[in-house]
Amino acid sequence: MRSLKILGELGSISVIFGMFCVVLNLIVSNEYRPIPLFPPCIYMIGGGFVANFVFENYEGKIVASIVASLKNIISKILGVVKAYTTRVGGGPCPTEQSNDFGKKLRDRGNEYGTVTKRPRRCGWFDAVAVRYTARIGGVDALSLMLLDVLSTFETIQVCTAYELDGRQMHSFPGSSEDLWRVQPVYETLPGWSEDITGVRKFDDLPVNAQNYVKRISELVGKPIELVSVGPDREQTISMLS
């Protein structure tokens, strides 16, 4: 309870701070634009947006309010997302693979709790959920992590829509009850067998890996600026250069 209270206080402070910066900006410049109150820095917020925000989880609302307030004073919000889907604990996960594919994703991605060692639930990339998250979070661009985990898959599935009661939908459901009932609509993409952990330029990736990244960007509607092909910092490909 103490941690929730602290999170609540931080969220309130962040919202007030964001409003203060907007008002100050209007007074100083008579325009609505971000103002550089601090030296260049990176502000990182961790949290499962969909798992928290949609299901009225307290911490999730704090994360959402912090991001919303900071949008007024920062130059860019970079959304960090895996090249596939993972979830911890209960709750709906439309693209979860409770089969050999899911186990392979889990083992290749080392998807086990850092402390508890509890296996995470794994599945194919859910473009519907990520597109929704990017929209409510004010995301400007994406950082696509763990692309190397998908190496050796002959084909890769991407969820492009949901089906509910015989009707195809491309927007995220408005209730958790509906999310439990949806069936993912998949698009199948060719995979690649090459080891990409040593690649440092996007053009050096296998063609199918490049096409996968481009397709994710198209489906989410956001540019991808960073791609990771391993756990080390050097294994990050910048799409800006």
Strand content: 15-25%
Please report the number of helical segments.
7
Pick out the low-confidence regions: 1-8, 22-32, 53-62
H/E topology pattern: HHHEEHEEHEEEHEHEE
Compute the gyration radius: what is it? 19 Å
Largest sheet: 4 strands, mixed
Q: How far apart, in Å, are the first and last alpha carbons?
A: 46 Å
Strand order of the largest sheet: 1-5-9-10
User: Would you tell me the overall average pLDDT?
Assistant: 81
CATH secondary-structure class of the largest domain: Alpha Beta
Overall geometry = globular
| CATH topology grouping of the largest domain | Adenylosuccinate Synthetase, Chain A, domain 3
CATH architectural designation of the largest domain: Alpha-Beta Complex
**Strand pairing plus helix content: what structural class?**
alpha/beta
Count all strands and give the number.
10
Quaternary class: single chain
CATH superfamily of the largest domain: Adenylosuccinate Synthetase, subunit A, domain 3
Could you say how many structural domains there are in total?
Answer: 2
Query: Percent of residues in helical segments?
Result: 25-40%
